[in-house]
User: What shape does this take?
Amino acid sequence: MKYGMPTLVELENILDNVNLAKAYNLDFIELNMDLPYCQNIKKQELKKYNLEFTMHLSEKLNIAELNNNLRKSYLNETIRQIELGINNNIKKYNLHIDSGVYFTLPSGKYYLNDKYLDIYLMNLEKSCQKLNEIAKKYNIEINFENTKIHNFTQKAINLINGFSNLGFTLDIGHNEKNKNLAYQILKKTNKIRHIHIHDYDGKSDHLEIGKGIIDFKKYQKVVNKCYAVIEVKEKQELINSLKKLKTLNL
Assistant: This one.
Protein backbone atom coordinates (compact mmCIF):
# COMPACT_ATOMS: atom_id res chain seq x y z
CA MET A 1 0.00 0.00 0.00
CA LYS A 2 1.13 3.51 -0.80
CA TYR A 3 -0.50 6.79 0.27
CA GLY A 4 -0.58 9.88 -1.90
CA MET A 5 -2.11 13.32 -2.16
CA PRO A 6 -3.92 15.15 -4.95
CA THR A 7 -2.45 18.29 -6.43
CA LEU A 8 -4.05 21.10 -4.41
CA VAL A 9 -5.54 24.19 -6.03
CA GLU A 10 -4.22 26.45 -3.22
CA LEU A 11 -0.64 25.56 -4.18
CA GLU A 12 1.02 27.34 -7.08
CA ASN A 13 3.11 24.68 -8.77
CA ILE A 14 4.23 21.06 -8.70
CA LEU A 15 7.21 21.85 -6.47
CA ASP A 16 4.92 23.21 -3.74
CA ASN A 17 2.99 19.94 -3.84
CA VAL A 18 6.20 17.92 -3.78
CA ASN A 19 7.45 19.78 -0.72
CA LEU A 20 4.17 19.11 1.11
CA ALA A 21 4.17 15.43 0.15
CA LYS A 22 7.75 14.96 1.34
CA ALA A 23 7.11 16.84 4.58
CA TYR A 24 4.47 14.24 5.49
CA ASN A 25 6.25 11.19 4.02
CA LEU A 26 3.71 10.56 1.28
CA ASP A 27 4.63 8.13 -1.48
CA PHE A 28 3.17 9.88 -4.50
CA ILE A 29 1.20 12.81 -5.92
CA GLU A 30 -1.81 12.46 -8.22
CA LEU A 31 -1.48 15.15 -10.89
CA ASN A 32 -4.80 16.80 -11.73
CA MET A 33 -4.80 17.52 -15.44
CA ASP A 34 -7.40 20.27 -15.07
CA LEU A 35 -4.75 22.41 -13.37
CA PRO A 36 -2.68 24.45 -15.86
CA TYR A 37 0.63 23.76 -14.12
CA CYS A 38 -0.03 20.02 -14.41
CA GLN A 39 -0.79 20.43 -18.10
CA ASN A 40 2.72 21.81 -18.59
CA ILE A 41 4.59 18.66 -17.54
CA LYS A 42 5.81 18.26 -21.13
CA LYS A 43 8.31 20.99 -20.29
CA GLN A 44 9.36 19.44 -16.98
CA GLU A 45 11.44 16.53 -15.76
CA LEU A 46 9.32 15.03 -13.00
CA LYS A 47 12.02 12.50 -12.13
CA LYS A 48 14.09 15.30 -10.61
CA TYR A 49 11.67 15.45 -7.68
CA ASN A 50 12.52 11.88 -6.61
CA LEU A 51 8.83 11.16 -5.95
CA GLU A 52 6.28 9.01 -7.72
CA PHE A 53 3.38 10.54 -9.68
CA THR A 54 0.04 9.25 -10.90
CA MET A 55 -2.38 11.15 -13.12
CA HIS A 56 -6.04 12.14 -12.76
CA LEU A 57 -7.15 12.88 -16.31
CA SER A 58 -9.38 15.91 -16.94
CA GLU A 59 -12.89 15.49 -15.58
CA LYS A 60 -14.50 16.78 -18.78
CA LEU A 61 -13.26 13.80 -20.81
CA ASN A 62 -16.24 11.67 -21.79
CA ILE A 63 -14.95 8.84 -23.96
CA ALA A 64 -18.46 7.39 -24.32
CA GLU A 65 -20.01 10.66 -25.54
CA LEU A 66 -23.07 10.01 -27.74
CA ASN A 67 -21.90 12.54 -30.34
CA ASN A 68 -19.22 10.51 -32.12
CA ASN A 69 -17.29 13.57 -33.30
CA LEU A 70 -17.05 14.81 -29.73
CA ARG A 71 -16.16 11.30 -28.53
CA LYS A 72 -13.19 11.21 -30.91
CA SER A 73 -12.04 14.60 -29.65
CA TYR A 74 -12.33 13.52 -26.01
CA LEU A 75 -10.50 10.28 -26.78
CA ASN A 76 -7.71 12.11 -28.60
CA GLU A 77 -7.27 14.46 -25.63
CA THR A 78 -7.32 11.49 -23.25
CA ILE A 79 -4.53 9.86 -25.22
CA ARG A 80 -2.57 13.11 -25.42
CA GLN A 81 -2.65 13.48 -21.64
CA ILE A 82 -1.65 9.84 -21.14
CA GLU A 83 1.26 10.30 -23.53
CA LEU A 84 2.47 13.26 -21.45
CA GLY A 85 2.49 10.92 -18.49
CA ILE A 86 4.21 8.09 -20.33
CA ASN A 87 7.00 10.50 -21.28
CA ASN A 88 7.42 11.17 -17.54
CA ASN A 89 7.33 7.48 -16.56
CA ILE A 90 3.87 7.70 -14.96
CA LYS A 91 2.28 4.26 -14.61
CA LYS A 92 -1.20 4.91 -13.17
CA TYR A 93 -4.00 6.93 -14.81
CA ASN A 94 -7.48 7.72 -13.49
CA LEU A 95 -10.51 8.47 -15.68
CA HIS A 96 -14.07 9.23 -14.59
CA ILE A 97 -17.01 7.17 -15.81
CA ASP A 98 -18.97 10.21 -16.94
CA SER A 99 -22.76 10.32 -16.50
CA GLY A 100 -23.26 12.37 -19.65
CA VAL A 101 -26.06 14.78 -20.50
CA TYR A 102 -29.44 14.63 -18.79
CA PHE A 103 -32.78 16.43 -19.22
CA THR A 104 -34.46 17.71 -16.06
CA LEU A 105 -38.12 16.69 -16.30
CA PRO A 106 -40.91 17.17 -13.72
CA SER A 107 -40.35 13.55 -12.70
CA GLY A 108 -36.58 14.01 -12.27
CA LYS A 109 -33.35 13.66 -14.24
CA TYR A 110 -33.60 11.78 -17.53
CA TYR A 111 -30.18 10.56 -18.71
CA LEU A 112 -29.60 10.30 -22.44
CA ASN A 113 -27.16 7.43 -21.91
CA ASP A 114 -30.08 5.34 -20.66
CA LYS A 115 -32.32 6.31 -23.57
CA TYR A 116 -29.59 5.66 -26.15
CA LEU A 117 -27.87 2.82 -24.33
CA ASP A 118 -26.77 0.96 -27.47
CA ILE A 119 -24.97 4.03 -28.82
CA TYR A 120 -23.43 4.74 -25.42
CA LEU A 121 -22.02 1.23 -25.06
CA MET A 122 -20.84 1.10 -28.67
CA ASN A 123 -18.95 4.37 -28.28
CA LEU A 124 -17.49 3.30 -24.96
CA GLU A 125 -16.28 0.04 -26.46
CA LYS A 126 -14.55 1.84 -29.35
CA SER A 127 -12.69 4.07 -26.91
CA CYS A 128 -11.80 1.23 -24.56
CA GLN A 129 -10.33 -0.79 -27.41
CA LYS A 130 -7.86 2.00 -28.10
CA LEU A 131 -7.04 2.63 -24.44
CA ASN A 132 -6.57 -1.09 -23.83
CA GLU A 133 -4.02 -1.21 -26.65
CA ILE A 134 -2.12 1.71 -25.15
CA ALA A 135 -2.19 0.23 -21.64
CA LYS A 136 -0.81 -3.07 -22.96
CA LYS A 137 1.84 -1.49 -25.17
CA TYR A 138 3.30 0.75 -22.45
CA ASN A 139 2.58 -1.49 -19.43
CA ILE A 140 0.51 1.15 -17.67
CA GLU A 141 -2.72 1.12 -15.67
CA ILE A 142 -5.78 2.98 -16.95
CA ASN A 143 -8.38 2.89 -14.19
CA PHE A 144 -12.00 4.03 -14.40
CA GLU A 145 -13.42 5.79 -11.35
CA ASN A 146 -16.94 5.44 -10.00
CA THR A 147 -18.87 8.70 -9.73
CA LYS A 148 -22.65 8.19 -9.80
CA ILE A 149 -24.11 4.73 -10.39
CA HIS A 150 -26.90 4.38 -12.95
CA ASN A 151 -28.24 1.48 -14.98
CA PHE A 152 -25.94 2.44 -17.85
CA THR A 153 -22.98 2.83 -15.49
CA GLN A 154 -23.29 -0.77 -14.33
CA LYS A 155 -23.30 -1.94 -17.94
CA ALA A 156 -20.29 0.28 -18.62
CA ILE A 157 -18.36 -1.34 -15.76
CA ASN A 158 -19.13 -4.79 -17.16
CA LEU A 159 -17.91 -3.70 -20.58
CA ILE A 160 -14.70 -2.13 -19.23
CA ASN A 161 -14.01 -5.25 -17.17
CA GLY A 162 -13.89 -7.26 -20.40
CA PHE A 163 -10.67 -5.50 -21.42
CA SER A 164 -7.69 -7.22 -19.85
CA ASN A 165 -5.54 -4.11 -19.44
CA LEU A 166 -8.20 -1.76 -18.03
CA GLY A 167 -9.14 -1.59 -14.36
CA PHE A 168 -10.91 0.50 -11.76
CA THR A 169 -10.47 3.19 -9.14
CA LEU A 170 -12.74 2.82 -6.12
CA ASP A 171 -13.68 6.25 -4.83
CA ILE A 172 -14.84 5.53 -1.28
CA GLY A 173 -16.59 8.86 -0.74
CA HIS A 174 -18.49 8.61 -4.03
CA ASN A 175 -19.38 5.04 -3.17
CA GLU A 176 -20.86 5.95 0.21
CA LYS A 177 -22.76 8.85 -1.33
CA ASN A 178 -24.32 6.42 -3.81
CA LYS A 179 -25.44 3.81 -1.27
CA ASN A 180 -22.42 1.49 -1.57
CA LEU A 181 -23.46 0.35 -5.05
CA ALA A 182 -20.08 0.88 -6.71
CA TYR A 183 -18.09 -1.20 -4.24
CA GLN A 184 -20.52 -4.09 -4.52
CA ILE A 185 -20.07 -4.07 -8.30
CA LEU A 186 -16.36 -3.29 -8.53
CA LYS A 187 -15.12 -5.81 -5.98
CA LYS A 188 -16.58 -8.60 -8.15
CA THR A 189 -14.22 -7.60 -10.96
CA ASN A 190 -11.10 -8.20 -8.83
CA LYS A 191 -9.60 -5.24 -10.72
CA ILE A 192 -9.71 -2.44 -8.13
CA ARG A 193 -6.19 -1.06 -8.48
CA HIS A 194 -6.47 2.49 -7.14
CA ILE A 195 -8.34 4.13 -4.26
CA HIS A 196 -9.61 7.63 -3.52
CA ILE A 197 -10.24 8.22 0.19
CA HIS A 198 -12.35 11.05 1.59
CA ASP A 199 -15.19 11.30 4.08
CA TYR A 200 -18.93 11.79 3.59
CA ASP A 201 -21.39 13.19 6.15
CA GLY A 202 -24.69 12.25 4.54
CA LYS A 203 -24.74 15.37 2.34
CA SER A 204 -21.26 16.27 1.16
CA ASP A 205 -18.22 14.21 0.21
CA HIS A 206 -14.53 15.11 -0.21
CA LEU A 207 -14.46 15.91 3.50
CA GLU A 208 -11.38 15.37 5.62
CA ILE A 209 -11.25 11.95 7.22
CA GLY A 210 -13.05 11.99 10.56
CA LYS A 211 -15.50 14.75 9.58
CA GLY A 212 -18.08 12.32 8.21
CA ILE A 213 -19.78 9.02 8.89
CA ILE A 214 -17.76 6.51 6.86
CA ASP A 215 -16.47 3.37 8.58
CA PHE A 216 -13.17 3.12 6.70
CA LYS A 217 -12.17 -0.15 8.34
CA LYS A 218 -14.60 -2.05 6.11
CA TYR A 219 -12.40 -1.02 3.18
CA GLN A 220 -9.15 -2.03 4.86
CA LYS A 221 -8.46 -5.12 2.72
CA VAL A 222 -8.84 -3.31 -0.58
CA VAL A 223 -6.95 -0.23 0.62
CA ASN A 224 -4.02 -2.40 1.71
CA LYS A 225 -3.60 -3.71 -1.85
CA CYS A 226 -3.71 -0.38 -3.69
CA TYR A 227 -2.32 3.08 -4.15
CA ALA A 228 -4.59 5.33 -2.09
CA VAL A 229 -5.06 9.06 -2.72
CA ILE A 230 -6.31 11.09 0.25
CA GLU A 231 -8.59 13.13 -1.98
CA VAL A 232 -9.39 16.18 0.09
CA LYS A 233 -9.24 19.72 -1.26
CA GLU A 234 -7.10 21.78 1.14
CA LYS A 235 -3.69 21.45 2.75
CA GLN A 236 -4.94 21.49 6.35
CA GLU A 237 -7.60 18.88 5.53
CA LEU A 238 -4.84 16.66 4.15
CA ILE A 239 -2.71 17.06 7.28
CA ASN A 240 -5.69 16.35 9.56
CA SER A 241 -6.68 13.31 7.48
CA LEU A 242 -3.18 11.84 7.72
CA LYS A 243 -3.33 12.10 11.51
CA LYS A 244 -6.71 10.38 11.54
CA LEU A 245 -5.51 7.59 9.25
CA LYS A 246 -2.82 6.68 11.77
CA THR A 247 -5.46 6.12 14.46
CA LEU A 248 -7.47 3.92 12.07
CA ASN A 249 -4.44 1.74 11.25
CA LEU A 250 -5.22 1.84 7.54
In short: Strands lie at 2-6, 28-32, 52-56, 92-96, 102-105, 108-111, 141-145, 166-171, 192-197, 227-230.
